[in-house]
């Protein structure tokens, strides 16, 4: 399993940014190998978002990014935000505490 972590600093319209990002998420979540997605927004810097997506493997993620539907949806994102993506593997993870 791999995790894609993408820090996005919005310098344009936040609503337009979230609409484009929603279309990208919709496409990616329907692709083989996709496991989950989360989107975070900084409380201290509301123009900064962090997106995480878990994939079964790096090849599934690469295939999804090569699709025409992905490229169509990602068009315009660079006008609204500066993305800083990277791919990570989990080395350590704590289980959630209950109770």
Give the arrangement of secondary structure elements.
Layout lengths: L1 E9 L3 H16 L4 E8 L6 E8 L2 H9 L1 H7 L2 H4 E9 L10
Antiparallel strand pairs: 1-3, 1-4, 2-3
Helix pairs in contact: 1-3
Q: Total number of helical segments?
A: 4
Radius of gyration: 14 Å
Strand order of the largest sheet: 2-3-1-4
Q: What is the overall pLDDT average?
A: 91
- The SS-based structural class is alpha+beta
Strand content: 25-35%
Helix content: 25-40%
Q: How would you describe the oligomerization state of the chains in this entry?
A: single chain
Give the overall silhouette: globular
pLDDT < 50 runs, ≥5 residues: none
SSE string, helices as H and strands as E? EHEEHHHE
User: Could you tell me the number of beta strands?
Assistant: 4
User: How far do the termini sit from each other?
Assistant: 28 Å
Largest sheet: 4 strands, antiparallel
What is the compact description of this entry?
The chain has four helices and four strands; from the N terminus they run E-H-E-E-H-H-H-E. The protein has helices spanning 14-29, 58-66, 68-74, 77-80; strands spanning 2-10, 34-41, 48-55, 81-89.
